[in-house]
């Protein structure tokens, strides 16, 4: 282990998390949401015009974002010289450019707004949900609200073109990445008729519908087992880029757009290739070429305006930020950064990872391996189990990972069974086996690294947040191979969580739950650190702290950290700093304790 004074500081890392989301291109300008520690994590609408200089559009006392379907998304739309947005608290605001926001609609009871999209005559379309039903509504600048579609099921993605409205619908006992329908409704006298299903079904997930400049309806579907892009012409569905790869992520939030249209008919889309996300341009003849090869991770917000492409991208040496690319440039031309916050020079050069595999109980287990530079001897190992569990492991600079690497740890990020990016079958194989297959794959990675001399025996740890926290706790319930576990914002009892989780996510909880069951203190076989925020609305802080107290009563080197006002993601820099410091100190204490 290195001296604890040589690694990155928790305070520095906690203030490096700058979030970029919901990138859009409108009338020659780029618009996006940004939050960073310099402004207390307030999410603001930002704009970059032709000069490349970015400026905040919304005031600093408004934090943008709602809780539609629990996770929000589609939080703003630019419509005829004004920005519509969902403010913190859920109300719908309209702000003419250069002026102050006006509250247009206040929420009532459990109402939630989101999934905003431009409507006709300066209005905005939105999805409004109240927990019992969803509605697609049109809201005028005067505050008039017209219900266009109402359903007892979930709705999303209202997209208007001429006299046709496209939208998505899925049953309340399903997740949209398992089963979802695309509907099309004709507009007469300003009102849509009954929607008819044009794609999707019980065993098909359709996501991200969008009207192309050719007047055709495009969408992603996993009908072949992979989310690919399709177009609808005269009730006939044809693939744009048939490929054995996912071109979209699981729709946890509204507003994802993993493809865009260039003026010459070229379509740009993302293609998930292992841990990397590639940008692929498909021309009208079907020819394809890769764009921006210097980016290895791209968020699902593709913005195309005229001949330029903009994305939120990153690589092993660059944290997520805004990047731009000239679509007329030569093949393999790199993307260039848009003039946004650089964050200064990091105190140490990031260590790039390698891709490794281990022999698992059901084939090979893939993971990203980050090793301390210049060290060939065995070192402590931290296995990180991603959240979701329907999530992935992007190949990008992550300062939390670099924090532990800088303190002498190897870090393995495991793409365990149930992750996204490897097709429908891989995504669904965890159903009924949560707490088993994910744990087996994380353990396989650790045991492989121990057998190959990378990991130090007796100093292998596992950490996870949310669903990954449940994975970590289930791993700690087994005698091998981990010497300690950290569970942040963790799920303790899947059955109880299924009853309390936001309604959107309940089918996911039901599908995942299997014989592994609840984690109980009596089953824990190694020291555990429990970290939770009191303001967590996704998982129960009370249940986590009760679990931690019961663990402590049994004796052992267990620990806990309750963060006042901390949310599910520990978004506040102070909360992240405390959590990082506590986790590192926990592992150090375990490595220096006398061995039995």
Automatic annotation (TrEMBL):
This is S9 family peptidase. GO terms for molecular function: serine-type peptidase activity. Residues 338-357 are annotated as: Disordered. One of its GO terms (biological process) is proteolysis. SUPFAM superfamilies: alpha/beta-Hydrolases (SSF53474), DPP6 N-terminal domain-like (SSF82171). InterPro entries: 6-blade_b-propeller_TolB-like, AB_hydrolase_fold, Peptidase_S9_cat, Xaa-Pro_dipeptidyl-ppase/CocE. Residues 397-591 form the Peptidase S9 prolyl oligopeptidase catalytic domain.
